[in-house]
Structures are given as C-alpha cells and as structure tokens.
C-alpha cells in the first residue's frame, strides 16, 4: 500500500542524497557497469555499501533536523538496462522491490532525529539520459515503465520519481502508467547549458505540455548545474510553481563533456550550495533539494543550511 504523502513546504526543505553513481564509482571505488547501482542490491556486500552510502545523508538530515527523501537505487532497473546487465524481468521485479525494502529498513533503523521521511522509487529513462534521437510515444512509454512502477508500488514506496527525462512523450507515458497503478509520481527533466531540454524545447514548454496531457504530482529538474537551470527560469509563468525539486550537478560541464570525461569534477560544495540557493529565490514551490552527478555528502551538508527567503 502506498502513501499519499508528498513533499511540500511544511518543512524548511526536504534533503535528498547526492549523485549515487558517481559517489559509488569515484569515492567508494565500486564497479558499476552501465552506470547502474541496482545490481548492488543483489549481494550482501553490495547492500552494505548502499547502507553506508545512504547513512551519510540520513546523518546530515538528523544533525540539521531536516526532512529527508530517500530515493531507491533503481534508476537503471528497467528492462533494456536490465537485459544489458543480465537481469530478466522477474529478477528486475525482485530488485526493484529490494530497493524499497532497503529504504524502509533504513527508515526504521536509522532516521531518529529526521523531521520526516518520504520514500521514493527512482525511475530512469529507457535510453541514455542525454539522448536526443530516441523519442518514446506516450503509450509505448507507459507500457515500458509500468512493470517497474508496479514493483515499486507493491513494495510500499510512498511515490516514484522519474529522473533525467529528456522528452515529453516519455514523461506523459510514465505519468499515465503511475496513475493506472495508483502511485504518486514526479517527473524530473534535465536541461543543457542553455536551460533547454536536450530535445531543444524550453522547460516551460515541456512542463506545460505534460501538464496538459497527464499532470504528475510535481516536477523537478536534475542532472544540470544550477547555473544551467537558471536560464530556464528567466521568464516565469504559472508553470514555475509546478517545480518542487532540484537535484543539480556539481560540475559546470555540459552533458557532452560529461560523456567524454575520465575524471570526476566535484566542483566546490560551498559554491554549489550558493548556486542552488539562488534557485530557491526563483522557485516559489521548491521543497526538495539534493544532488546529481559529482555531488556527495559534502554538497548535501552545505545544502542543509539553505533557507527560503521571507514570504
């Protein structure tokens, strides 16, 4: 049974974790083929590594009395990526459920002092997170993502969050599948350095189009540096109040530069928090802040000090 609790402004800000894949690869020196963290759920050693990773963020939230959104490590746990990694449908179903079970265990065992915990099942795009040449139609996207969303719901996720989405068609399909299941759903678009989606449309146009066809519970923006997100907010309209979360990159690199990089660019945590703080002033409904590529507990610790401007 899923909860109807969603993040809002009843707390100062909900924190999330950082960039799980880059943290696990570059700071914890784990091998993640195809940039996938979910296979770690399949071994006791992997689960221990994930517990250690999430505990850092739980401790930050507890130390600051913050609310926390725990996102399962299942961003890549969909059929195409599962096939590449040797996991058929039944195994993917099992591991998606295991991701939520791990979050529930952490909530029970570790979150004393945290203001509130919401558990979200993380969903990713069918294709590469920066792809512009592969565009799913809504019905195809709904059919593709439905099994993962069903597994997350059956395991007891409060909601699901679809991250690094580049096309409106896939976003609409994900929302429709989640609505069929009865699972609250958030959609997170990624943007390029100019604030536009990789497909070239504006963030405003993408949110407006998805809201007209299949509105999610809210939107986020992720996998872009805060200074790349800021241009997307230059001409605000009613759509801007639909953005409730930001999970930003530490680096100012473009997506193309990321694909060519051989070393981690983790930026400066204090500067990162200042840049995210600038977005807080532009997003009146913002309730969730966290990190994406290159960020870790240092960056989220710095974000914990952010406060909303006076009303």
UniProtKB/TrEMBL annotation:
Pfam families: S-methyl_trans. Residues 2-307 form the Hcy-binding domain. Zn(2+) binds at residues 223, 292-293. InterPro entries: HCY_dom, HCY_dom_sf. One of its GO terms (biological process) is methylation. Keywords: Metal-binding, Methyltransferase, Transferase, Zinc. Its cofactor is Zn(2+). Gene3D superfamilies: Homocysteine-binding-like domain (3.20.20.330). GO terms for molecular function: metal ion binding; methyltransferase activity. This is Homocysteine S-methyltransferase. It comes from Leekyejoonella antrihumi.
